[in-house]
Design brief:
CATH topology: Pnp Oxidase, Chain A
Number of domains: 1
Helix content: 10-25%
CATH superfamily: Electron Transport, Fmn-binding Protein, Chain A
Number of strands: 14
Strand order of the largest sheet: 3-2-6-9-10-5-4
Structural class: alpha+beta
Radius of gyration: 19 Å
CATH architecture: Roll
CATH class: Mainly Beta
Length: 209
Amino acid sequence: MMFDFATTSPNNRYKLLTATVVPRPIAWVVTQDAQGGINMAPFSFFNAFSSNPPVLGVSIGGPHTDKDTLANIRATGQFVVCLVPESAVHAMNITAIDLPPEVDEMAEAKLTPVPSSLVKPPRVAESPVAFECQTHQLVPLGGNTLVLGTILAAHVQDDCVLDAAKCYVDTPKLGLIGRMHGGGGYARTTDIINVPRIPLADWQARDKG
């Protein structure tokens, strides 16, 4: 069945995208306002977009808005993206509640703040991966704003680092989850199939053997 997005409502476009573009990594975004208040919210319209320069992108808005996150990023230019392990999925769900601006979501979810190295917003001790970011660009997308952040530093849980010099990470050990469809669908990222890349020479020689 073909869905013509020109005649499909924004809400139905959202449903189609979130039901099919899966699993999506989750950006647990921590920001700080000018007075030092902490805000934390999860976003699944998120991914890595560049390694040189190192850039992450988080789309904020649409059916699920978080005005505090975007306002803080506009005001300070700093944020921390933490990735969500299965062990913290219920805490993450608490931070998704539309709490009043004065409420610290991190404290509400009983999460542990850890000082960042290069930016003011803290990272989360319960997250095995955190990226300290400064704003690279804000791209208006109608009802959404795409926040592109330059990564200043990455923190990876010590026991998940296989070789620090080579930057080898034990990805399955991170235990991360991805966003699926529906109101509360998530996927584990530990169910892996291994399909090695095919060298060009091997592909070209396939019929010469």
